[in-house]
Amino acid sequence: MTSFLHSQQVGEGEGKAGTGERPLLEVRKMTPCVHCQQPGTGEEQGTGRHPLLEKILPEGYDHLVCSYEEVSQAQFRSHFKLRITSEDEVFKWLEYFQTSSGQVWRKSKTYPNCGRYNAYRVDLRCQHNTYPRPVKPAKKTKNMSCGAIMYLVLKRDAGSQNRKSRSGDPHIKDGYLLNIHLRYEHNHQLSCADVVRKRDASDETIAKLKTLFERGHSPSSALDIIKYDLQEQEGESPIYTAADRSICPDMYFCYRLYYKLFQKAYTAPSEEKMLADLRDRLYQYNTVQGETSAKMEKTECGQVAIAVCTPVMRRVHTKLSESGEIIFVDSSGNCERQSHRIFLLLAHSTAGGLPLGVLITTSESQSTITSGLRLLRTLLPAGSFFGREQPQVIMTDDCRALRQSLQAVFPDAKLLLCMFHQLQAMWRWLWSGRNGVAKQDRPQLLNSFKSLVYPDSTALLTERYNRCLADPVAIKYPRFLHYLAEVYRRHEEWAICLRNELPTRGQNTNSLVESAFRVGKEKVLHRLKPYNVTQLVDFVTTRMEAHYIRRLTDTANDGVAFLHVNDVDYENIAQVDENHYVVPSATSELQYDVDVAIGCCTCSDGLAGALCKHQSAVLNKFGHHESVPHVPTPQMRTLYHEIATGSEGVLLKASDCTNVNASPGPGTSAEALEEMLAQFCSSLKDKLHNDPQTFTAPICTFLGTYKKMNDSSLASALHCFGKMSPVKSKNRRSSKMNGTAIGKRKAALIPGRPPKCPRKEHLY
């Protein structure tokens, strides 16, 4: 069936045909073309409508359909024209056409020299008609030898050249310069999952991914955000749009885009060019900071050392007293593609480990580390390490190059070994098959070495060592005795009894800096390797700095939420002396000794140095908040605010430090309870004012019930307040057996996925 019609799409308001702008509302109108009209015989002739063509044409354009021929029920051939005058407008129309038709078109032939009368010409083919190539049997190919093709020919505008057109085409004088010949003869399905998953990612999706990358997301987390937003937009059935690759790309595309962006920003063609680019980045960073916070140096052996001391690190040096007592140093590798080593210097605090400096090297040799540490010392502020210029104690693992470098740069510091690493090294030695220790003897020998780590005095340490040497099991293994002697020769570095006079603050392991590395890889690097050392330095100076600022700010604002549990007998807590308390358990006959001066308890958590529930019970009943090492005092919180922001903080009053989020215990003072009640009433008034529709009826019911209650019923109601869940169980029912009512079951939460309303906040 052949017909020659004129299809017009008229936008409301101003006519924008030919400008590439698409109006918000479109009304399609199809009328016969006067110039090209020929007698037709089909049913569509004279109706002015072509459903197949009209379905795929983009809105916002004036399409002049000169010919239309249906080949089959879903295939046709057509020739139509548009009022388009430039090549950029052709590209824009093609983009809109691919979106409206749901098909991807590839270039099959281009015409660099279009001739005298053509401004632009290109031949297009369906993406499912690829060039034949050998394919593995198990691998699918999208080549279906599809016969759909499209030719785009843009005529030159004679009017712009101040000459009269001599073309025989009657539509050129009306501005229809773009000729489109379309053979819509696809031999495959157009809307199945196998087709839409091969579409190109749209510009909107690419822009969204770039924005997420700039916010610090990895390719996998960025794709999760897109899927989450898609689920929010599509409701409970996002299956159709999730299969469309233009909206929801695959993981491989996200990774390719990620590395393409960072390769463009960070890749250098050679090592010298990379070093020059890194120097430029460091210069820009120092210029922005207004001081020298990062330096790079190339050693005599050709290695590179980069030292960084950000503004937050400088403030930790000058304001935190712990920075001059004991610091923790450790290194980590495999952080980026060139496998540079990153060294982190940390100070202990009640807010966790705080950084004092970062060192990045291309080698783990002693000379390189020494050069890097000396370079880092040039960046430290005046009065570093809280005015001592050197720390009193440095704790590391048993890395000879690192320890020798630290001793050379900080000669007055006492170097200690991490107790955990010593035990781990002994365990590895015993469990190594080449050392010939029988499997049944390994635990006993390990326990013998453990007894050397935890003695209370030097005399006891010597006694236990002699006992280990005389142990019949140890005598069977001369290699073990030799290894034990080598380790014991350095007992001053790892024996706990010899650390009593050192300012270690109860820290016997290097786990603080190892935890910082683990959190850094999770929060700063997002479990993704930086592209090269330039990007790694960028992450240290931006993301890492922001991470510690957030941690300090959270600690300064929230303080510590004390525990309040039911298995602690608050009434029978006994005070032995000023700092010693005995806390009985409410569920057993056990008793726990709590010393608030050193922040220890005899329970397993307290022995590990954590703030346990027994210490929290003492704090809730007797106070002592300012004497517990784990709890930030008002002065500490003010100090953390100054370190995070660089501005002088205002010392908080004692009343300002009341933790309203913590559950008050029986020992809470009357003043604190009155303040909490006032805050509760103020919060309830704010809720009534901001959302009267929700809270008016419940508050009226609450006040009406309160007026009818006596003191006994009021006390009972206060005890039960908030303990009954308002959510009704689907299976809740009352039953009776043998005339006795079965007790009411607790209301269960509704199973299944949560409703959409609480999932409005983005993950980022």
TrEMBL record:
Recall the GO molecular function terms of this protein's record: zinc ion binding
InterPro entries assigned to the protein according to its UniProt record, in alphabetical order: MULE_transposase_dom (IPR018289), Znf_SWIM (IPR007527)
Origin organism lineage = Eukaryota, Metazoa, Chordata, Craniata, Vertebrata
**Span list, region Disordered:** 1-22
Q: Which residues cross the membrane?
A: none
Residues covered by the SWIM-type domain: 592-623
- This protein's name: SWIM-type domain-containing protein
Which UniProt key words apply to this protein?
Answer: Metal-binding, Zinc, Zinc-finger
Q: Where is the composition biased (Polar residues)?
A: 1-10
Q: Which organism is it from?
A: Perca fluviatilis (European perch)
